[in-house]
Design a protein that fits this description.
Layout (H helix, E strand, L loop, with lengths): L20 H13 L2 H4 L2 E3 L10 E3 H10 L14 H5 L2 H9 L3 H10 L1 H15 L9 E2 L5 E2 L9 E2 H9 L8 H12 L1 E2 L2 E2 L2 E2 L25 E2 L3 H10 L3 H11 L1 H4 L3 H4 L7 E4 L10 E4 L4 H13 L2 E3 L3 E4 L9 E8 L2 E9 L6 E5 L2 E3 L3 E3 L7 E8 L1
Parallel strand pairs: 15-19
Antiparallel strand pairs: 1-2, 3-4, 5-8, 6-7, 9-10, 10-11, 12-13, 13-18, 14-15, 16-17, 16-19
Length: 381
Protein backbone atom coordinates (compact mmCIF):
# COMPACT_ATOMS: atom_id res chain seq x y z
CA UNK A 1 0.00 0.00 0.00
CA UNK A 2 1.47 3.35 -0.88
CA UNK A 3 1.68 5.84 1.93
CA UNK A 4 -0.09 9.14 1.44
CA UNK A 5 2.27 12.08 1.06
CA UNK A 6 0.40 13.83 3.86
CA UNK A 7 1.39 11.27 6.47
CA UNK A 8 4.55 12.24 8.29
CA UNK A 9 7.61 10.26 7.31
CA UNK A 10 7.93 9.13 10.91
CA UNK A 11 4.86 6.98 10.32
CA UNK A 12 6.84 3.89 9.41
CA UNK A 13 4.91 0.78 8.54
CA UNK A 14 5.86 -2.63 7.22
CA UNK A 15 2.29 -2.85 5.98
CA UNK A 16 2.44 0.27 3.85
CA UNK A 17 5.78 0.73 2.08
CA UNK A 18 6.03 3.11 -0.84
CA UNK A 19 5.16 1.31 -4.05
CA UNK A 20 8.03 1.32 -6.51
CA UNK A 21 6.24 1.95 -9.78
CA UNK A 22 8.83 0.89 -12.40
CA UNK A 23 8.09 -2.88 -12.31
CA UNK A 24 4.33 -2.26 -12.46
CA UNK A 25 4.59 0.23 -15.30
CA UNK A 26 7.05 -1.86 -17.29
CA UNK A 27 4.97 -5.01 -16.88
CA UNK A 28 2.01 -3.13 -18.35
CA UNK A 29 4.15 -1.85 -21.22
CA UNK A 30 5.46 -5.34 -21.95
CA UNK A 31 1.89 -6.63 -22.13
CA UNK A 32 1.14 -4.05 -24.80
CA UNK A 33 4.29 -4.02 -26.93
CA UNK A 34 6.16 -7.24 -25.99
CA UNK A 35 9.64 -5.73 -26.40
CA UNK A 36 11.27 -8.53 -24.46
CA UNK A 37 14.85 -7.77 -25.65
CA UNK A 38 14.46 -4.40 -23.92
CA UNK A 39 14.40 -6.23 -20.57
CA UNK A 40 17.86 -7.60 -21.34
CA UNK A 41 19.34 -4.16 -22.00
CA UNK A 42 21.92 -3.12 -19.43
CA UNK A 43 22.08 0.19 -17.59
CA UNK A 44 24.02 1.48 -14.57
CA UNK A 45 22.84 2.20 -11.07
CA UNK A 46 22.63 5.96 -10.59
CA UNK A 47 21.31 6.50 -7.07
CA UNK A 48 24.34 5.82 -4.88
CA UNK A 49 28.08 6.48 -5.11
CA UNK A 50 28.71 2.87 -4.06
CA UNK A 51 26.73 1.66 -7.07
CA UNK A 52 28.40 3.81 -9.69
CA UNK A 53 29.99 1.61 -12.32
CA UNK A 54 27.71 -1.34 -11.63
CA UNK A 55 25.63 -2.57 -14.54
CA UNK A 56 22.48 -4.65 -14.51
CA UNK A 57 19.74 -5.62 -16.92
CA UNK A 58 16.42 -3.81 -16.75
CA UNK A 59 14.86 -7.07 -15.57
CA UNK A 60 17.26 -7.18 -12.62
CA UNK A 61 16.75 -3.50 -11.83
CA UNK A 62 13.02 -4.24 -11.65
CA UNK A 63 13.51 -7.32 -9.46
CA UNK A 64 15.66 -5.44 -6.97
CA UNK A 65 13.16 -2.58 -6.91
CA UNK A 66 10.15 -4.85 -6.49
CA UNK A 67 11.73 -6.78 -3.63
CA UNK A 68 12.89 -3.50 -2.07
CA UNK A 69 16.20 -5.15 -1.25
CA UNK A 70 19.26 -2.96 -0.85
CA UNK A 71 21.78 -3.51 -3.62
CA UNK A 72 24.61 -4.22 -1.18
CA UNK A 73 22.56 -6.89 0.53
CA UNK A 74 22.43 -8.68 -2.80
CA UNK A 75 26.21 -8.63 -2.93
CA UNK A 76 26.96 -10.52 0.26
CA UNK A 77 29.36 -13.21 -0.84
CA UNK A 78 29.59 -16.74 0.59
CA UNK A 79 31.21 -16.64 4.04
CA UNK A 80 30.60 -12.90 4.47
CA UNK A 81 28.22 -11.08 6.72
CA UNK A 82 26.92 -7.58 6.17
CA UNK A 83 29.24 -5.99 8.73
CA UNK A 84 32.28 -7.39 6.91
CA UNK A 85 31.02 -6.37 3.51
CA UNK A 86 30.23 -2.85 4.67
CA UNK A 87 33.75 -2.54 6.04
CA UNK A 88 35.49 -3.60 2.83
CA UNK A 89 35.16 -0.88 0.16
CA UNK A 90 37.67 -2.61 -2.11
CA UNK A 91 35.74 -5.86 -1.89
CA UNK A 92 32.52 -4.01 -2.70
CA UNK A 93 34.12 -2.32 -5.68
CA UNK A 94 35.29 -5.68 -6.98
CA UNK A 95 31.86 -7.20 -6.55
CA UNK A 96 30.20 -4.30 -8.31
CA UNK A 97 32.46 -4.52 -11.34
CA UNK A 98 32.95 -8.27 -11.56
CA UNK A 99 29.43 -9.23 -12.55
CA UNK A 100 28.69 -10.71 -9.13
CA UNK A 101 25.27 -9.07 -9.32
CA UNK A 102 24.06 -11.32 -12.13
CA UNK A 103 23.69 -14.67 -10.29
CA UNK A 104 22.55 -12.90 -7.12
CA UNK A 105 19.79 -11.06 -8.95
CA UNK A 106 18.76 -14.31 -10.62
CA UNK A 107 18.47 -15.82 -7.16
CA UNK A 108 16.42 -12.83 -6.08
CA UNK A 109 14.05 -13.36 -9.01
CA UNK A 110 13.50 -16.91 -7.87
CA UNK A 111 12.41 -15.59 -4.50
CA UNK A 112 9.77 -13.16 -5.75
CA UNK A 113 6.92 -15.64 -5.31
CA UNK A 114 8.04 -16.51 -1.78
CA UNK A 115 8.36 -12.85 -0.81
CA UNK A 116 4.93 -12.10 -2.29
CA UNK A 117 3.35 -14.94 -0.34
CA UNK A 118 5.07 -13.85 2.87
CA UNK A 119 3.85 -10.28 2.48
CA UNK A 120 0.31 -11.47 1.79
CA UNK A 121 0.42 -13.57 4.95
CA UNK A 122 1.67 -10.58 6.95
CA UNK A 123 -1.20 -8.42 5.72
CA UNK A 124 -3.69 -11.20 6.43
CA UNK A 125 -2.42 -11.56 10.01
CA UNK A 126 -1.60 -7.98 10.97
CA UNK A 127 -3.31 -5.81 8.37
CA UNK A 128 -6.96 -6.82 8.75
CA UNK A 129 -9.03 -4.94 11.30
CA UNK A 130 -12.12 -7.13 11.26
CA UNK A 131 -14.12 -5.36 8.55
CA UNK A 132 -11.45 -3.52 6.52
CA UNK A 133 -7.71 -3.32 5.93
CA UNK A 134 -5.57 -1.20 8.25
CA UNK A 135 -3.80 1.88 6.92
CA UNK A 136 -0.51 1.54 8.81
CA UNK A 137 1.33 1.02 12.06
CA UNK A 138 3.36 3.96 13.34
CA UNK A 139 6.92 3.74 14.63
CA UNK A 140 5.59 2.89 18.09
CA UNK A 141 3.38 0.05 16.90
CA UNK A 142 0.13 2.01 17.12
CA UNK A 143 -2.51 1.37 14.49
CA UNK A 144 -3.89 3.89 12.02
CA UNK A 145 -7.05 3.15 10.08
CA UNK A 146 -8.42 0.90 12.81
CA UNK A 147 -11.60 0.73 14.82
CA UNK A 148 -9.29 1.45 17.75
CA UNK A 149 -8.83 5.02 16.46
CA UNK A 150 -11.25 7.78 17.35
CA UNK A 151 -10.37 9.67 14.16
CA UNK A 152 -8.99 8.17 10.96
CA UNK A 153 -10.61 4.78 11.62
CA UNK A 154 -10.84 3.68 7.97
CA UNK A 155 -8.85 4.78 4.91
CA UNK A 156 -9.59 4.25 1.24
CA UNK A 157 -6.06 3.46 0.02
CA UNK A 158 -5.55 0.03 1.62
CA UNK A 159 -9.03 -1.12 0.63
CA UNK A 160 -8.26 -0.45 -3.03
CA UNK A 161 -4.62 -1.47 -3.09
CA UNK A 162 -5.02 -4.69 -1.13
CA UNK A 163 -7.86 -5.91 -3.33
CA UNK A 164 -5.98 -4.86 -6.48
CA UNK A 165 -3.08 -6.97 -5.19
CA UNK A 166 -5.44 -9.95 -4.98
CA UNK A 167 -5.67 -9.99 -1.19
CA UNK A 168 -8.99 -11.12 0.22
CA UNK A 169 -10.45 -12.36 -3.04
CA UNK A 170 -10.58 -15.96 -1.83
CA UNK A 171 -11.77 -15.45 1.74
CA UNK A 172 -14.41 -12.75 1.39
CA UNK A 173 -12.32 -9.97 2.90
CA UNK A 174 -12.21 -8.11 -0.41
CA UNK A 175 -16.01 -7.87 -0.54
CA UNK A 176 -16.04 -6.93 3.14
CA UNK A 177 -13.52 -4.13 2.65
CA UNK A 178 -15.49 -2.73 -0.29
CA UNK A 179 -18.72 -2.92 1.70
CA UNK A 180 -16.99 -0.86 4.40
CA UNK A 181 -15.97 1.69 1.77
CA UNK A 182 -19.56 2.04 0.60
CA UNK A 183 -20.83 2.36 4.18
CA UNK A 184 -18.22 4.71 5.62
CA UNK A 185 -16.41 6.50 2.78
CA UNK A 186 -18.67 6.80 -0.28
CA UNK A 187 -20.53 10.06 -0.85
CA UNK A 188 -22.61 11.27 -3.83
CA UNK A 189 -19.58 13.30 -4.92
CA UNK A 190 -16.99 10.53 -4.65
CA UNK A 191 -15.10 8.49 -2.07
CA UNK A 192 -13.38 10.38 0.77
CA UNK A 193 -9.86 9.45 1.88
CA UNK A 194 -10.79 8.51 5.42
CA UNK A 195 -13.33 8.83 8.20
CA UNK A 196 -13.77 10.31 10.68
CA UNK A 197 -11.88 13.43 9.68
CA UNK A 198 -9.12 14.70 11.97
CA UNK A 199 -10.35 17.59 14.09
CA UNK A 200 -6.98 18.51 15.58
CA UNK A 201 -3.31 18.32 14.65
CA UNK A 202 -1.58 15.01 15.40
CA UNK A 203 2.18 15.32 15.73
CA UNK A 204 2.68 11.66 14.77
CA UNK A 205 0.68 12.05 11.52
CA UNK A 206 1.83 15.50 10.45
CA UNK A 207 0.38 17.19 7.38
CA UNK A 208 -2.59 14.89 6.90
CA UNK A 209 -4.15 16.27 10.10
CA UNK A 210 -3.24 19.90 9.39
CA UNK A 211 -5.98 20.64 6.83
CA UNK A 212 -9.54 21.62 7.77
CA UNK A 213 -11.85 18.60 7.96
CA UNK A 214 -13.08 17.57 4.52
CA UNK A 215 -10.30 19.19 2.52
CA UNK A 216 -7.23 17.74 0.82
CA UNK A 217 -5.67 14.81 2.73
CA UNK A 218 -7.93 15.32 5.73
CA UNK A 219 -10.98 13.36 4.53
CA UNK A 220 -11.30 15.13 1.21
CA UNK A 221 -12.29 13.24 -1.93
CA UNK A 222 -8.88 12.70 -3.46
CA UNK A 223 -9.93 11.75 -6.97
CA UNK A 224 -6.66 9.91 -7.66
CA UNK A 225 -7.62 7.15 -5.20
CA UNK A 226 -11.19 6.61 -6.43
CA UNK A 227 -10.23 4.48 -9.47
CA UNK A 228 -8.53 2.00 -7.17
CA UNK A 229 -11.92 1.22 -5.70
CA UNK A 230 -13.45 1.01 -9.20
CA UNK A 231 -10.82 -1.56 -10.17
CA UNK A 232 -11.24 -3.45 -6.90
CA UNK A 233 -15.00 -3.58 -7.40
CA UNK A 234 -14.53 -4.94 -10.92
CA UNK A 235 -12.12 -7.57 -9.61
CA UNK A 236 -14.84 -8.81 -7.26
CA UNK A 237 -17.34 -8.92 -10.14
CA UNK A 238 -19.33 -5.84 -9.11
CA UNK A 239 -19.80 -4.05 -12.41
CA UNK A 240 -22.66 -1.93 -11.10
CA UNK A 241 -20.57 -0.66 -8.19
CA UNK A 242 -17.48 -0.02 -10.32
CA UNK A 243 -19.45 2.00 -12.88
CA UNK A 244 -21.32 3.86 -10.15
CA UNK A 245 -18.05 5.09 -8.63
CA UNK A 246 -16.74 5.96 -12.10
CA UNK A 247 -19.69 8.27 -12.72
CA UNK A 248 -19.51 9.97 -9.32
CA UNK A 249 -16.29 11.82 -10.18
CA UNK A 250 -16.55 11.88 -14.00
CA UNK A 251 -16.30 15.55 -15.09
CA UNK A 252 -18.94 15.36 -17.82
CA UNK A 253 -21.41 13.65 -15.48
CA UNK A 254 -20.70 16.22 -12.77
CA UNK A 255 -21.66 19.04 -15.14
CA UNK A 256 -25.22 18.38 -13.99
CA UNK A 257 -24.10 19.65 -10.57
CA UNK A 258 -21.91 22.43 -11.95
CA UNK A 259 -23.22 24.99 -9.45
CA UNK A 260 -21.73 22.82 -6.70
CA UNK A 261 -18.79 21.27 -8.54
CA UNK A 262 -17.52 24.66 -9.81
CA UNK A 263 -14.89 23.13 -12.08
CA UNK A 264 -14.36 22.67 -15.82
CA UNK A 265 -16.55 19.85 -17.19
CA UNK A 266 -13.72 18.40 -19.29
CA UNK A 267 -10.95 17.80 -16.75
CA UNK A 268 -10.49 16.02 -13.44
CA UNK A 269 -9.70 17.91 -10.26
CA UNK A 270 -7.17 16.85 -7.67
CA UNK A 271 -9.79 16.84 -4.95
CA UNK A 272 -13.47 17.42 -4.23
CA UNK A 273 -14.49 18.71 -0.83
CA UNK A 274 -15.57 15.85 1.43
CA UNK A 275 -18.67 15.45 3.57
CA UNK A 276 -17.05 17.19 6.54
CA UNK A 277 -16.43 20.37 4.54
CA UNK A 278 -18.92 23.25 4.39
CA UNK A 279 -18.59 23.18 0.57
CA UNK A 280 -19.09 19.44 0.09
CA UNK A 281 -18.91 18.60 -3.62
CA UNK A 282 -16.83 21.61 -4.68
CA UNK A 283 -13.79 20.66 -6.77
CA UNK A 284 -10.35 22.21 -6.38
CA UNK A 285 -7.00 22.10 -8.21
CA UNK A 286 -8.16 21.02 -11.66
CA UNK A 287 -5.51 19.44 -13.90
CA UNK A 288 -3.25 18.74 -10.89
CA UNK A 289 -3.89 15.01 -10.68
CA UNK A 290 -3.17 11.57 -12.06
CA UNK A 291 -6.88 10.73 -11.96
CA UNK A 292 -7.40 10.81 -15.73
CA UNK A 293 -4.81 8.08 -16.32
CA UNK A 294 -6.11 5.91 -13.49
CA UNK A 295 -9.74 6.36 -14.55
CA UNK A 296 -8.82 5.44 -18.12
CA UNK A 297 -7.33 2.20 -16.82
CA UNK A 298 -10.37 1.57 -14.62
CA UNK A 299 -12.97 2.06 -17.35
CA UNK A 300 -11.11 0.55 -20.32
CA UNK A 301 -9.17 -2.31 -18.75
CA UNK A 302 -11.38 -3.39 -15.84
CA UNK A 303 -14.98 -2.29 -16.45
CA UNK A 304 -14.91 -2.81 -20.21
CA UNK A 305 -12.29 -5.43 -19.39
CA UNK A 306 -10.03 -5.02 -22.45
CA UNK A 307 -6.45 -5.21 -21.22
CA UNK A 308 -3.09 -6.33 -22.60
CA UNK A 309 -1.29 -9.33 -21.15
CA UNK A 310 1.95 -11.07 -22.02
CA UNK A 311 -0.03 -13.89 -23.66
CA UNK A 312 -2.45 -11.76 -25.67
CA UNK A 313 -5.36 -9.34 -25.37
CA UNK A 314 -7.72 -10.23 -22.54
CA UNK A 315 -11.41 -9.40 -22.95
CA UNK A 316 -13.13 -9.90 -19.60
CA UNK A 317 -15.82 -7.22 -19.15
CA UNK A 318 -17.36 -6.50 -15.76
CA UNK A 319 -20.08 -4.09 -16.87
CA UNK A 320 -23.36 -3.13 -15.20
CA UNK A 321 -26.01 -5.81 -15.38
CA UNK A 322 -28.34 -3.43 -17.21
CA UNK A 323 -25.97 -2.96 -20.14
CA UNK A 324 -26.99 -4.97 -23.23
CA UNK A 325 -23.39 -4.89 -24.42
CA UNK A 326 -20.96 -2.62 -26.25
CA UNK A 327 -18.60 -2.41 -29.20
CA UNK A 328 -14.96 -1.30 -29.18
CA UNK A 329 -11.87 -1.32 -31.37
CA UNK A 330 -8.52 -1.85 -29.68
CA UNK A 331 -5.14 -1.51 -31.42
CA UNK A 332 -2.84 -4.12 -29.92
CA UNK A 333 0.67 -4.96 -31.14
CA UNK A 334 -0.05 -3.55 -34.59
CA UNK A 335 -3.38 -5.35 -35.06
CA UNK A 336 -6.85 -3.83 -34.79
CA UNK A 337 -9.23 -5.90 -32.66
CA UNK A 338 -12.92 -5.29 -33.44
CA UNK A 339 -14.70 -6.35 -30.26
CA UNK A 340 -18.43 -6.95 -29.81
CA UNK A 341 -19.79 -7.77 -26.35
CA UNK A 342 -23.36 -8.99 -25.79
CA UNK A 343 -25.05 -9.80 -22.52
CA UNK A 344 -27.01 -13.06 -22.37
CA UNK A 345 -27.18 -13.35 -18.57
CA UNK A 346 -26.47 -11.41 -15.40
CA UNK A 347 -23.01 -12.85 -14.74
CA UNK A 348 -19.51 -12.08 -16.00
CA UNK A 349 -18.62 -15.50 -17.44
CA UNK A 350 -17.09 -15.05 -20.90
CA UNK A 351 -17.82 -17.09 -24.02
CA UNK A 352 -15.16 -16.05 -26.54
CA UNK A 353 -15.20 -16.39 -30.32
CA UNK A 354 -12.27 -15.17 -32.44
CA UNK A 355 -12.65 -14.95 -36.22
CA UNK A 356 -15.51 -17.45 -36.02
CA UNK A 357 -13.65 -19.97 -33.83
CA UNK A 358 -14.63 -20.71 -30.23
CA UNK A 359 -11.74 -20.08 -27.82
CA UNK A 360 -11.47 -21.32 -24.25
CA UNK A 361 -10.86 -18.64 -21.61
CA UNK A 362 -10.87 -14.90 -22.11
CA UNK A 363 -7.49 -14.22 -23.80
CA UNK A 364 -7.45 -13.76 -27.57
CA UNK A 365 -4.57 -15.80 -29.01
CA UNK A 366 -1.90 -13.78 -30.79
CA UNK A 367 -2.61 -13.72 -34.54
CA UNK A 368 -0.13 -14.55 -37.29
CA UNK A 369 2.43 -11.80 -37.98
CA UNK A 370 1.08 -9.21 -40.39
CA UNK A 371 -2.58 -9.72 -39.46
CA UNK A 372 -4.34 -6.37 -39.76
CA UNK A 373 -7.72 -7.07 -38.10
CA UNK A 374 -9.19 -9.63 -35.73
CA UNK A 375 -12.91 -10.06 -35.08
CA UNK A 376 -13.77 -10.80 -31.45
CA UNK A 377 -17.23 -11.71 -30.15
CA UNK A 378 -17.89 -12.03 -26.40
CA UNK A 379 -21.09 -13.26 -24.77
CA UNK A 380 -21.53 -12.61 -21.04
CA UNK A 381 -23.57 -15.16 -19.13
Amino acid sequence: MPTNGGIKKALVSKLSPMVRPAPIVNASIMGQVALYPFLASRSPFMNSPMRLGAMATLRDHQTISALKVDFLELLVLPGDDMSKVKGLPARKAWALKSGALEPTARSARAGVAAVTAARAATVAEHGWDGDWFLRAYDAFGHKLGSRENQEGRIFVEPQGMCVMAGLGLEDGRAEGALAAVREHLATPHGIVLHQPAFTRYYLEYGEISSYPPGYKENAGIFCHTNPWIMIAAAMTGDGDGAHDYYRRINPSVREAASEVHACEPYVYAQMIAGRDAPTHGEAKNSWLTGTAAWNYVAISQWILGIRPTLEGLRVAPVVPRGWPGFRATRLYRGTAYDITVERAGEGNAVSLTVDGQRIAGDVVPLPAPGTERVQVQVVLR
